[in-house]
């Protein structure tokens, strides 16, 4: 059974009704358990659970140290192109936004790689807008050949691929995939993805499974928080991660918690998500998924990232840019605004001050 079929089984679940029935004793009972069910996950995402964040944080910290130690993996994103064929109402790369599009040549790419590698980064996430025409697989493969000279681990965040296509990139040297469903609520998904191949909800949802079948070593998923109700989006994202972890035992999984940020366009956040809500999501993820990594990007402010560090985070981006060629030039449009602009060395120093070690490399492809 694919996750798409599993998701259909929850169609009749009234999440709001379940959340509103949760009591303090329900939360205390869940916190006493070693292994949590999906019903327990909803308890931790309930309004009442907000009264128990300190107890949730203590247990989340213990589980994180037990399963991951006091280390934080550091990585950086690199934008290769901002050409996109999709009209997505919340994204600066949307095809309807008018600005000069850009794509790195292989020479430009090498210059970017040198800049990032000089910061100490060895784990790179390459991103493109979703355009097969402007960023075909051949371009991605040629880019990977260049990047392999500078980075030990290369992940992609591009348009969804077929299994054979993921396998061809894996054979070229790509070992990881990040793909966000953006919003699990199918009605909202259809509304915000106005036109383009990204309207295919099922093909996107099953991309992570195809990547696992293709041999990808690590897969990162998540919802773009702010598009739908945060409790239901967090619930389905966690179920998705749990499904993948149980089905593909040879793959490492992580989950991200990206919030909507300012971008080109006039889309307004539909579902408010406070810092406290985001903390509750991180804690619920850690308690429900003790062995799944949790990523926190520079979308969040430096103070927020520093404060939630001990609550379950295992991987962070540092000194990021969302501009194509942004490590070599300030000239260009951001996909979204960055909130934490600290240098890599500054992030490393903060980690050490908090008793954590910043890790740049834990794997090398032969």
Structural description of this entry:
- The protein is globular, with a radius of gyration of 20 Å.
- It is α/β, with parallel strands linked by helices and 366 residues long.
- It starts with a helix and ends in a 7-residue tail after the last strand.
- It has 15 helices and eleven strands.
Average pLDDT? 95
Order of helices and strands: HHHHHEEHEHEHEHEHHEHEHEHEHE
Major sheet, described briefly?
Answer: 8 strands, parallel, barrel
- Straight-line distance between termini: 33 Å
Which descriptor suits the 3D outline? globular
Lateral strand order in the biggest sheet: 1-3-4-5-7-8-9-10
Helix content: 25-40%
| Stretches with pLDDT under 50, minimum 5 residues | none
Structural class comes to alpha/beta
Our estimate of the beta-strand percent is 5-15%
DSSP strand tally: 11
Q: Using only CA atoms, what is the Rg?
A: 20 Å
Number of helical elements = 15
């Amino acid at each position: 059974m694919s996750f798409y079929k599993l998701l259909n089984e929850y169609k009749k679940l009234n999440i709001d009704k379940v959340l509103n029935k949760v009591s303090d004793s329900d939360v205390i009972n869940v916190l006493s358990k070693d292994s949590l069910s999906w019903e327990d996950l909803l308890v931790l995402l309930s309004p009442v659970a907000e009264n128990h964040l300190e107890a949730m944080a203590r247990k989340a910290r213990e589980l994180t140290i037990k399963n991951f130690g006091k280390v934080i993996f550091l990585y950086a994103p690199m934008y290769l192109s901002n050409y996109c064929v999709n009209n997505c109402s919340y994204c600066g790369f949307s095809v309807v936004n008018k600005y000069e599009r850009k794509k790195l040549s292989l020479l430009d790419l090498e210059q970017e790689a040198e800049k990032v590698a000089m910061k100490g980064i060895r784990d790179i996430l390459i991103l493109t807008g979703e355009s097969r025409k402007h960023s075909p697989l051949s371009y991605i493969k040629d880019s990977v050949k260049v990047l392999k000279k500078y980075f030990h681990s290369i992940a992609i965040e591009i348009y969804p691929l077929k299994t054979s296509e993921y396998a061809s990139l894996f054979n070229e040297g790509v070992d990881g995939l990040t793909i966000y469903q953006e919003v699990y609520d199918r009605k909202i998904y259809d509304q915000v993805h106005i036109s383009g191949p990204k309207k295919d909800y099922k093909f996107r949802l099953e991309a992570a499974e195809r990547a696992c079948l293709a041999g990808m070593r690590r897969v990162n998923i998540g919802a773009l928080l702010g598009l739908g109700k945060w409790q239901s989006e967090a619930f389905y994202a966690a179920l998705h991660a749990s499904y993948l972890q149980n089905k593909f035992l040879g793959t490492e999984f992580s989950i991200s918690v990206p919030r909507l940020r300012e971008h080109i366009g006039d889309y307004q956040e539909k579902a408010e998500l406070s810092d406290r809500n985001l903390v509750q999501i991180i804690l619920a993820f850690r308690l429900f998924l003790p062995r799944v990594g949790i990523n926190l990007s520079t979308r969040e402010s430096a103070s927020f990232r520093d404060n939630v560090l001990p609550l379950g985070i295992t991987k962070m981006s540092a000194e990021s840019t969302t501009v194509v060629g942004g490590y070599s030039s300030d000239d260009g449009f951001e996909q979204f605004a960055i909130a934490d602009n600290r240098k890599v060395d500054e992030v490393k120093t903060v980690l050490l001050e908090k008793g954590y070690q910043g890790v740049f490399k834990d794997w090398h492809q032969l």
